[in-house]
Amino acid sequence: MIEIKDLHKTFFSELGTEKKVFRGLDFTINDGDFITVIGSNGAGKSTLLNVLNGQVIPDAGEIILNGQNITAIEQHKRAKWISQVYQNPTMGTAPSMTVLENLSMAKNKGKRFNFTFGLDTKNIDFYKGQLADIGLGLEKQLHTQVGLLSGGQRQCLSLIMATLNRPDILLLDEHTAALDPETSNKILEKTKEIIEKNNITSLMITHNMQDAITYGNRLIMLHAGEIIFDIKGAEKQKLTVEKLLEMFKTKDAKLSDKDVF
Ligand SMILES: Nc1ncnc2c1ncn2[C@@H]1O[C@H](COP(=O)(O)OP(=O)(O)OP(=O)(O)O)[C@@H](O)[C@H]1O
Question: Is the CB of 19 under 6 A from ligand 1?
């Protein structure tokens, strides 16, 4: 379980203007939740993920992971528990290394003397099976440099690398937004399969309303740093794109009366 308690975060631009992104957010993520996160531009979606992964340190508040306060734990140390796939396919993989080298590195993440473990040849069949499932031909390119792969192939690899050691939480920041619709669907279906099979607690940001409805057991709508809708289970299954768009229109009225701007 992850508890976010009374989270505050303000950014200052170079010109000194301030942007209060979170003003006391409370949010609990239950074990096994697969939460889709939607919301307007600048609502704080990526900042929420960055607070969880340790890239952004909150001004106040606490992040509690399975009872442990991890608020002050550095990003590279949290990587043991928290994995992320980014929107940009060039992030999350090492371009000058081969597919198999990248997978081997991910498998050994968190162990001492990573690189001396060398290639993880004993799991090659498993890797080939995972890569073949997605249908982008990667299983035949284990010895290809990752920098030469297509964006879709790199995202496929990033997803498999991020989930190899079953993280406590998987963060997906619009991880299929840069892909064509067919490739995006393939990666989303594989994402769902991996999450469900391994029961990985996950948050997925998307601007695609249909994907937000189709995937996951819970949907949150973030606006001006507040969760204005939190829809679960059977209620979520009844959602339609039209209904979500209607809900979007009520977003300003849903904000609490804290000092927003
Ligand atoms: N490192 C930073 N420095 C300054 N401002 C930042 C920083 N990170 C985020 N912000 C600002 O905080 C606000 C929230 O940003 P965030 O990226 O979390 O929004 P978002 O909901 O993910 O938006 P989008 O849908 O456009 O990606 C924005 O106004 C953004 O400009």
Answer: yes
Nearest residue to 33 via CA among 170, 187, 229: 170
**Is any ligand 1 atom within 6 A of the Cβ of residue 46?**
yes
Nearest atom within ligand 1 for CA of residue 173: 22
Task: Name the residue range of residue 249's domain.
Answer: 2-254
- Whole-angstrom Cα distance, residue 185 to residue 35? 18
Centre of ligand 1 from the C-alpha of residue 86, in Å: 15
Residue 124: phi and psi, rounded to 5, are -55, -45
pLDDT above 70 for 150: yes
CATH of the domain at 66: 3.40.50.300
Residue 165, Cβ density class (10 Å: 0-12 exposed, 13-18 middle, ≥19 buried)? middle
The answer as to whether 77 is a domain residue is yes
54 lines ligand 1 (CB under 6 A): no
* Domain count of the fold of the chain: 1
pLDDT tens column, 213-259: 999 999 999 999 999 999 999 999 999 999 999 998 988 888 876 65
pTM over 0.90: yes
Contact assessment for residue 146 and residue 69, using Cβ atoms and an 8 Å cutoff: no
Ligand 1: does its nearest atom lie under 6 Å from the Cβ of 21?
A: yes
pLDDT in tens, 87-112: 998 888 999 999 999 999 898 776 65
Residue of the CA atom closest to atom 17 of ligand 1 = 46
Q: What residues contact 6, with CB distance under 8 A and at least 6 apart?
A: 24, 25, 26, 60, 61, 62
What is the ipTM, given to two decimal places? 0.97
